[in-house]
Amino acid sequence: MFVETFKRYRMEIDLRRRSFSIPELPEGYFFEKWSPALLEAHATAHYLSFRDEMDARLFDNFRTYRGCRRVMESIMSRANFLPDATWLIVYQPKNAYFTEYCASIQGLVTPSGMGAIQNVGVAPRHRGKGLGHALLQAALSGYQRFGLTRADLEVTAANERALHLYHSEGFHIVQFFERAASSRRRKSNG
Ligand SMILES: CC(C)(COP(=O)(O)OP(=O)(O)OC[C@H]1O[C@@H](n2cnc3c(N)ncnc32)[C@H](O)[C@@H]1OP(=O)(O)O)[C@@H](O)C(=O)NCCC(=O)NCCS
Fold first, then answer.
1. Going by CA atoms, what residue is nearest to atom 28 of ligand 1?
2. Structural domain boundaries enclosing 81
3. Which of 6, 52, 123, 177 is the most buried (most CB within 10 A)?
4. Is residue 186 part of a domain?
5. pLDDT given for residue 174 in this prediction
6. pLDDT per residue as tens digits for the range 82-113
7. Which atom of ligand 1 has the smallest separation from the CA of 159?
8. How many angstroms separate the CA atoms of 111 and 109, rounded?
9. Is residue 188 included in any domain, yes or no?
10. Under-70 pLDDT residues of the chain
11. Any residues with Cβ below 6 Å from ligand 1, and which?
12. Which residue, among 154, 155, 121, has the nearest Cα to 48 in the 3D structure?
C-alpha cells in the first residue's frame, strides 16, 4: 500500500526574548478563553481551518468534523493540557445575529517544560487579517504566564504561509523529519 510521507519541521521559540500579550483583534472579532463548553466551537473552527489543507492529507481526523472533535477531546482530556494557551476567535460583526467560530489554537506542556502548540488554524475566509499572528501571541502569552521559557510546534515544510507566520513571530527551525500520512493514531501538532 502506498503511504504518502511529508517533510516536517519542528520549530522553537525562546520566550525570554520577547514579552507576549493578548493582542487587539480587527473589528468584529473576539477572543474566547478556553472553557469545556467551547469544545464543539473549537472543533468547528479546527475543521473549517484544516479540512481542505495539506495537513488533512497527513492527519485523517482533520478531514471531518467528527475527527476534529476527537482531536479536541483528546487534547483537552490530557493531564498536560494548558487552558491558558488555548484560544478561540469568534467573528460576530456589529448588529449580526450569527456567530462564526473562525480560528483556534490549543496548548500542551511537555514533561520537560516545553509549551507544545497544537493546531494553529484560521478558516479560509478570515485569513490575511492578522488572526494567525493573534492566535500565536495569545497562546505564547499564556505560556509566559505559566512560567515557561520555550515553546515549539510542528509544521509541514511545504506550508509556506504557516512557515512565514512562525518565522515572523520568532520561531526557528530546530529539527527536520518525515512523517507518514496517518491512520487515527498520532498526535496533531502545529
Ligand atoms: C497558517 C494560517 C494559520 C495563517 O493564518 P492567517 O490568519 O492568514 O495569518 P496572518 O494574517 O496573521 O499572517 C499571515 C502571514 O503570512 C503571509 N502569507 C500569506 N500567504 C502567504 C504565502 N502563500 N506564502 C508566504 N506567506 C504568506 C501574510 O502576508 C502574513 O505575513 P506577515 O506576517 O508578514 O503579515 C492559515 O493560513 C491557516 O489556518 N492555514 C491552514 C491550517 C494550517 O496549515 N495551519 C498551520 C498548521 S502548522
1. 128
2. 19-151
3. 123
4. no
5. 98
6. 999 999 999 999 988 889 999 999 999 999 99
7. 44
8. 7
9. no
10. 1, 183-190
11. 49-50, 53, 55, 120-122, 127-133, 155, 159-162, 164-165, 168, 190
12. 121
Q: Is residue 118 within 8 Å of 105, Cβ to Cβ?
A: yes
Q: Candidates 165, 167, 169: which one to mutate for ligand 1, based on the most atoms within 8 Å of Cβ?
A: 165
What total number of domains does the chain contain? 1
Q: Can you tell me whether residue 104 is helix, strand or coil? A: strand
- For 137, which DSSP code? H
Three-class secondary structure of residue 143 per DSSP: helix
User: What is the pLDDT at residue 116?
Assistant: 98
Q: Whose CA is nearest to atom 5 of ligand 1?
A: 132
Query: Is residue 120 one of the residues assigned to a domain?
Result: yes
Ligand 1 centroid to residue 41 C-alpha, Å: 21
Could you identify the residue written with the cell 506550508? 159
Asked if 105 contacts 139 with a C-beta cutoff of 8 angstroms, the reply is: yes
CA of 1 to the centre of ligand 1 (A): 33
The predicted model scores a pTM of: 0.94
φ/ψ of residue 87, rounded to 5: -135, 150
The CATH code of the domain that includes 86 is 3.40.630.30
Closest residue by CA, ligand 1 atom 10? 130
Evaluate whether residue 100 is within a structural domain: yes
pLDDT in tens, 105-129: 999 999 999 999 999 999 999 999 9
| Paired sense of beta strands 172-180 and 87-91, if any | unpaired
pLDDT score of 16: 97
